[in-house]
Amino acid sequence: MNAPLHAPLAALDWTGVETALDVQGWALLPGLLSPADCEALAGLYAGDAGFRSRVVMERHGFGRGEYKYFAHPLPDIVARLRTALYPLLVPIANRWNAAMGLDVRYPADHADFIARCHQAGQLRPTPLLLQYGAGDYNCLHQDLYGEHVFPLQLAILLSEPGRDFDGGEFVLTEQRPRMQSRAEVVPLRQGDAVVFAVNQRPVQGTRGIYRVAMRHGVSRVRAGTRHTVGIIFHDAQ
């Protein structure tokens, strides 16, 4: 769990990642975590240490399944991923906001952005660990949590499709103005991550830039157990 993260991050095609985000609102980061790291993170779910709260989705109408929010200090690998990925995504986030006519800009360092969240009363860490069993699913949603929202987030699949579970595809939808929603299934294997728009992204139309709202969820798990870690860069109220 203490292996450096610079190697898998440096190996990624960040020009391709940026292009994919601009074109479709999401990008695949293959092999971000090793199988050993995935299994170690998934194994944390069985205990309560290191978590601040547990949510049973069905009680709130979120779907079926459950998740736990990590407490501070975050697991080392989650904290390092959050810190290392943020500055790579900041240029995209700032460019998107400028294109959409939004005044908000994000600082280069994640600690400075978290300080901004905390000054606004967003004090609770948002990275989370999700667990799904047979019949479980996650309704389409957005992870906003407060006034200060970083426009990109990450989901990392910790389980192996076809071995640990069946079904349970990661699903994204986008709602363009005056058009029906479009859905897309993201193909993930164990250790793969998807970075995607939290809320809105800019799209070039014939009359200029317009905003597209995106939501994400997980289709019904048909068999087995599926674990995912979510990395959200803003903290919550």
Output the helix-strand order.
HHEHEHEEHHEEEEEEEEEEE
Computed over alpha carbons, the radius of gyration is 17 Å
Give the end-to-end Cα distance, rounded to a whole number of Å. 30 Å
For the largest sheet, list the strands in their spatial order. Answer: 1-11-7-15-5-4-2
Q: Using DSSP, what is the number of strands? A: 15
* Alpha plus pi helix count: 6
Q: Can you tell me the CATH superfamily?
A: q2cbj1_9rhob like domain
Largest sheet: 7 strands, antiparallel
What portion of residues belong to β-strands?
Answer: 25-35%
Structural class: alpha+beta
State the low-pLDDT regions, or none: none
Q: What spatial form do the alpha-carbon principal axes imply?
A: globular
Give the mean pLDDT: 95
Q: Could you say what the CATH topology is called?
A: Jelly Rolls
Can you give a write-up of this model?
This protein is of the alpha+beta class and 237 residues long. The protein has a single domain, classed as Jelly Rolls. Helices cover 27% and strands 34% of the residues. The protein has six helices and 15 strands. The strands form three sheets. A seven-stranded antiparallel sheet has the order 1-11-7-15-5-4-2. Strand 9 and strand 10 form a beta hairpin. The two termini are 30 Å apart.
